[in-house]
Amino acid sequence: MTDPIDVPIRYMQRTRDWYLALGFDNPYVWAHHVDAPFQPLKKPLQDMRLALITTAAPFQPDKGDQGPGAPYNAAAKFYEVYSGDVCQDHDLRISHIAIDRDHNAMKDPNAWFPLPALRAVEGKSFGALTPRFHGLPTNRSVRHTMEVDAPEILRRCREDGAEAALLVPNCPVCHQSVSLIARYLEENGISTVVMGCAKDVVEHVGAPRFLYSDFPLGHAAGKPFDAESQAQTLDIALKTLSQAPGSRTTVQSPQRWSDDPAWKLDYSNPATRSAEEMAAHRAKAHADREIARKVRETT
User: Is the peptide bond before 68 cis (omega within 30 degrees of 0)?
Assistant: First the structure.
């Protein structure tokens, strides 16, 4: 018999319930599209140049605790697209976004930033990486994502000769942002695949191609410290990119996080928190909003 909780987490509903419980009485409105653009590969993936797009943030030593095990850190957020050399190693963190801190210790960057895994199969599973990867802000404003971030990501991808792109989100809003970017890139001739964990968000936005891993948020690139899981996740994502028959293709990874699906009850769930815990979350959320506002205004 199937366990009734062993289904994809409804992150949009969880987020609405959580923010209402925190005292924010204006529920977030998620972007939604019925149809999705689709750019077929113009040649075999083994001959194409691939761009990596992430929502992880560069470590900033002056911005407080950023992991492992860090609480949500609004001061570490970024609000403009950035790029990095794919030939170098990078210290990218996810303390600035709402990942699943109950089930993600944030100790293995390879679970959310698959640059090393991509290097390992460059020239085999795909032609080559673009010279740079790109960092996409986790922007709650759909308008800003589409009018500012999307054109900038496209400009940089074109500048680097990208013919395809792998997009790796972390939090629920990250999944919305990268899905919007994927749509924009496809509309402008670049084939894409999103590799993520929030199925409802990505499918609600309408991403062209999506590899869904039923893992806690922050593990879109595979299980931490599990090279086999990470390699398999990337392999399925690249196959989804090259083999998807049409738009809105979702492929589910066969990997399971745990035989016990109880972990799915914890993320942003007021029902699993005591009154005292919710009071503490409420106070922190309002303080974090003010911190984020100040960071945004000074960026």
Answer: yes
% residues pLDDT > 90 (the chain): 87
Task: Report pLDDT for 2.
Answer: 56
Give SS3 for 165.
strand
Please state the pTM of the whole predicted model: 0.94
Q: What residues contact residue 289 under an 8 Å CB cut-off, 6+ apart? A: 74
- For the chain, how big is the Rg over CA atoms in Å? 18
Residue-wise pLDDT tens digits, 167-176:
999 999 999 9
- β-bridge pairing 132-135 and 49-54: parallel
Q: What does the alpha-carbon distance between residue 121 and residue 285 come to, in Å, rounded to a whole number?
A: 41
Q: Return the number of other C-beta atoms located less than 10 Å from residue 275's C-beta.
A: 8
**Which tokens is 20 given?**
């209402």
Count Cβ neighbours within 10 Å for each residue of 10-45 and write b for 16 or more, e otherwise: ebbebbbbbbebbeeeeeeebbeeeebbbbeeeeeb
Residues in the chain: 299
Please say whether the beta carbons of 50 and 166 come within 8 A: yes
Give 40-63 pLDDT, tens digit per residue. Answer: 999 999 999 999 999 999 999 999
More confident residue, 297 or 120: 120
Structure tokens at 83: 């790029």
